[in-house]
């Protein structure tokens, strides 16, 4: 692209975004006003074969400010009643924020599908974390309890099943499952054969949904009756105004009355096997935008989906697909390539440098030192995304240490 063409495209893009921001605000306001007047709520879908219906939009909260009650209250009023958290989020403040809400509005509890997670890898640790979560959130039970960040089905065994069954029998949890950021497809396929996993939360977005592996995994879980919650649905990446495809995407969606971020949510909802989409909504602006997208009945066309797919292909080297078994088996030593890429995602795509640093600095110092001595050439050759892994690992050490 020539400099003049790039500058014209960039100016047109920014001009369109400016105009769309005003239009999007009015469109969102109108939708939510109508929802309030007609008592509309977020549409629901069955959560697998559990017999429970959940809203298609879940509140992924990291709230610990005085505004948290207001945002949670509005989310509840608009029907965003699937609330997702974890015992580690905000150092426990996220769960405590939900606890303050339920203490103030205890009558709302029966309408909220409450989800939390534990990083513990022992049964005693799971029990401890569950009890802490119950106390923090001022509730007697958790609707769905996850083991967080499962990387392999070897992380789950018959003892885990027995633990879950006992907690269900005692009324402490209703459903049990796991979240996964890494090797998602193999974890999902494995879970579909177990017969006792109720729900899975996995990375799922316009970049991942078209792969044969993910399609097969989603289909298997749906047949097994497992409720699926999509997370990381924006697919990462920064706006790139010298990309013709990205400019076409932005312009096309703006003409339809929604942003590219809202379009990416719609792409996920297009698959009826996805029960719910979980989005972090730390403020009212994002909550309003996501609710408006959920209420809007405009469907993405085949051309819309094709443009998203084309954009995913053109920018794949900027996105880690979480297939850690491929890259990490190609390097010497215990280098957590996928975890480092996740830290970079939080710092760059989410714009949350501190979150990226905090996660990165939990990697043992000796492992971080090993990163500087490791040869990543074989991993780069095998990477389906064709990522510059060696370069990115060096950048992570510089930016996140």
**CATH third-level topology of the largest domain:** TIM Barrel
Q: Per CATH, which architecture of the largest domain?
A: Alpha-Beta Barrel
CATH class membership of the largest domain: Alpha Beta
Instruction: Please state the average pLDDT score.
Output: 87
Superfamily at the CATH H level of the largest domain? NADP-dependent oxidoreductase domain
Total domain modules: 2
Structural class: alpha/beta
Tally of DSSP β-strands: 10
Strands in their spatial order, largest beta sheet: 3-4-5-6-7-8-9-10
Element order: H for helix, E for strand: HEEEHEHEHEHEHEHEHHEHHHHHHHH
**Number of helix segments?**
17
In the predicted model, the low-confidence regions spanning at least 5 consecutive residues are: 1-23
Strand content: 5-15%
Q: Evaluate the radius of gyration.
A: 21 Å
Q: Assign a percent range to the helix content.
A: 40-55%
**Shape annotation:** globular
State the end-to-end CA separation.
36 Å
Biggest sheet details: 8 strands, parallel, barrel
Structure, explained:
- This protein is α/β, with parallel strands linked by helices and 401 residues long.
- It has two domains: 10-311, TIM Barrel (Alpha-Beta Barrel), CATH 3.20.20; 320-400, no CATH class.
- It is 52% helix and 12% strand.
- It is built from 17 helices and ten strands.
- It has helices at residues 3-38, 68-77, 93-104, 123-136, 158-169, 184-194, 212-224, 244-256, 260-269, 284-295, 302-314, 324-328, 337-348, 353-360, 365-373, 377-382, 389-400; strands at residues 44-46, 53-55, 57-60, 82-84, 113-118, 142-147, 173-180, 199-203, 227-231, 276-280.
- The strands form two sheets. It has an eight-stranded parallel beta barrel, surrounded by six helices. It has a two-stranded antiparallel ribbon with strand order 1-2.
- Strand 6 (142-147), helix 5 (158-169) and strand 7 form a beta-alpha-beta unit.
- Helix 1 (3-38) crosses helix 10 (284-295) and helix 13 (337-348) crosses helix 17.
- It is globular, with a radius of gyration of 21 Å.
- Residues 1-23 have low confidence and may be disordered.
């Amino acid at each position: 692209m020539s400099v003049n063409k790039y500058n014209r495209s960039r100016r047109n893009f920014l001009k369109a975004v400016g105009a769309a921001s005003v239009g999007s605000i009015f469109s969102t306001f109108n939708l939510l006003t109508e929802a309030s007047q007609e008592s509309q709520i977020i549409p629901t879908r069955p959560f697998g074969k559990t017999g429970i219906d959940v809203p298609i939009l879940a509140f992924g909260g990291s709230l610990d400010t005085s505004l948290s009650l207001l945002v949670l209250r509005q989310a509840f009023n608009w029907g965003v009643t699937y609330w997702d958290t974890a015992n580690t989020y905000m150092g426990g403040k996220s769960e405590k924020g939900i606890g303050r809400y339920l203490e103030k509005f205890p009558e709302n509890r029966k309408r909220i599908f409450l989800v939390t997670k534990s990083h513990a890898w022992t049964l005693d640790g799971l029990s401890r974390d569950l009890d802490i979560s119950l106390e923090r959130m001022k509730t007697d039970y958790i609707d769905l309890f996850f083991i967080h960040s499962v990387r392999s089905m070897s992380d789950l065994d018959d003892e885990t099943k027995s633990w879950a069954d006992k907690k269900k029998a005692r009324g402490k949890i209703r459903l049990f499952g796991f979240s996964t950021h890494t090797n998602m497809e193999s974890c999902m396929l494995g879970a579909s054969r177990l017969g006792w996993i109720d729900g899975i939360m996995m990375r799922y977005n316009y970049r991942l949904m078209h792969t044969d592996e993910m399609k097969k995994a989603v289909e298997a879980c749906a047949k097994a009756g497992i409720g699926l919650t999509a997370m990381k649905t924006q697919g990462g990446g920064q706006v790139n105004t010298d990309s013709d495809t990205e400019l076409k995407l932005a312009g096309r969606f703006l003409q339809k009355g929604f942003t590219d971020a809202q379009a990416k949510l719609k792409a996920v909802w297009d698959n009826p096997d996805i029960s719910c989409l979980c989005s972090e909504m730390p403020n009212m602006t994002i909550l309003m935008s996501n609710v408006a997208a959920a209420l809007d009945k405009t469907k993405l066309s085949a051309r819309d989906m094709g443009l998203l797919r084309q954009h995913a292909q053109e920018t794949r080297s900027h996105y880690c697909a979480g297939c850690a078994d491929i890259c990490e088996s190609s390097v010497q030593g215990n280098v957590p390539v996928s975890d480092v890429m996740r830290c970079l995602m939080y710092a760059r795509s989410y714009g949350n440098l501190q979150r990226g640093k905090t996660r990165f600095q939990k990697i043992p110092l000796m492992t971080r030192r090993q990163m500087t001595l490791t040869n990543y050439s074989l991993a780069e050759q095998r990477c389906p995304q064709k990522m510059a892994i060696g370069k990115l690992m060096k950048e992570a050490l510089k930016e996140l240490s």
